[in-house]
Design a protein that fits this description.
Helix content is 43%, strand content 20%. Strands 1, 2, 3, 4, 5, 6, 7, 8, 9, 10 and 11 form an eleven-stranded mixed beta sheet that branches. The radius of gyration is 22 Å and the shape is globular. It folds into two domains: 14-253, Spore Coat Polysaccharide Biosynthesis Protein SpsA, Chain A, CATH 3.90.550; 259-357, no CATH class. The chain is an alpha/beta fold and 358 residues long.
């Protein structure tokens, strides 16, 4: 194991790819969390996606401990793909420039990937920390559960479950930890399963399938990337927080995109990923229809609130076509509202009144 980070001539075991844009204060803490890893055979590749703040100077301060590459602004997933093409490691880690790693993360993940050669990638749960440009606040546990309405029983989702003690791998947290092996393709239909910053991926699995992140869909690109990869190869899930997702106000966060646009992109992603998979849709069409129908109803309501009645009617028509049982009473009520001028204004007034009463 190499004792230095980023300076060896031989290919490193793992390449850590950090895309960043105008996050000078945040990216420094992210890089520091990689340099503090107990696993030392690492190269750190930072893709500066056309930052206009102090990011270049901050990155230059790390000298040869990192490899900094500057490019014209192209977005998160194109930057990640740039890093993948530059990476020399056997394993790849996609670390967002506003997230942090526990110091033992890489050592644990690489031990698990070595133990399970049939797994294409390993990922984990994460903590959520309120962090405004480097000023840390409160920390919440089990971040993965906040992405889903129901509380998951991981042992029921994954067909194989092991524990670190059984595998002979020391626990970094003083108690035994469950490790699950399986596919998250079906479960990803209902919501994202993988925070990219928690994942370590086998380079050979990506190259085998010529698999890269979709560059035309930054909002859901990593969601689609890991869903498709899990369809091709199995995944390892560690029921432990190995990363910290920093929640903060940041003008470049994707969640600032128009919520209607984000929802429309998710519906489109279902079309091209799950509905376009002949084998999957043959077995799971009712499930796909139900999920997409709920999203279309939600999109229709959002269009109504924005006074876009034509778009609302379009979403409702498609939702009714997916139901398989014709239009329900709620469908007819919603469709009628979508034809009434001023509905959006009325709905906004009702929403404001409910907020005041609450």
């Amino acid at each position: 194991m190499n004792s230095s980070i980023g300076g060896a001539d031989a290919p490193p075991t793992v390449s850590v790819i950090i895309p960043t844009f105008n996050r000078a204060r945040l990216v420094a803490l992210t890089i520091d969390s990689v340099l503090a890893q107990t696993w030392r055979d690492v190269e750190v590749i930072v893709i500066d996606d056309g930052s206009t703040d102090d990011t270049p100077a901050v990155l230059a301060g790390y000298g040869n401990r990192i490899r900094s590459v500057r490019q014209a602004n192209r977005g998160m997933n194109p930057s990640r793909n740039t890093g993948i093409e530059l990476a020399r490691g056997k394993y790849l880690a996609l670390l967002d420039s506003d997230d942090l790693w526990e110091p033992w993360k890489l050592e644990l993940d690489l031990n698990l990937l070595d133990r399970f050669p049939d797994a294409a990638f390993v990922f984990s749960d994460f903590a959520i920390m309120r962090d405004d440009f480097g000023v840390a606040g409160s920390r919440a546990s089990n971040g993965l559960h906040t992405w889903h309405r129901e509380h998951h029983d991981w042992a029921r989702i994954y067909p194989r479950t092991h524990h670190l003690a059984e595998l002979g791998i020391p626990s970094p947290v003083g108690h035994d930890v469950a490790v699950h092996l399986g596919c998250v393709f079906e479960r990803s239909l209902h919501g994202p399963m993988v925070l990219p910053s928690t994942a370590v991926i086998r380079r050979a699995a990506l190259d085998k399938h010529a698999h890269r992140l979709p560059e035309s869909a930054d909002t859901h690109g990593d969601w689609e990337f890991f869903a498709r990869l899990s369809r091709l190869e199995c995944a390892l899930f560690v029921d432990l927080e190995t990363a910290i997702n920093r929640s903060h106000d940041d003008p470049v966060r994707l969640t600032r995109a128009d919520p209607r646009q984000r929802l429309a992109r998710r519906i489109s992603m279902i079309d091209r990923v799950w509905r376009n998979d002949a084998g999957f849709i043959a077995q799971h069409r009712p499930e796909v229809d139900r999920v997409q129908r709920e999203l279309l109803h939600w999109l229709a309501r959002m269009h109504l609130l924005a006074d876009d009645r034509a778009a609302s009617r379009g979403a409702l028509r498609r939702a009714a076509a997916l139901s398989g049982t014709g239009r329900s009473i709620n469908d007819w009520v919603s469709l009628c509202l979508a034809h009434v001028p001023g509905t959006g204004r009325l709905l906004r007034m009702i929403r404001q009144l409910r907020h005041r009463l609450a």
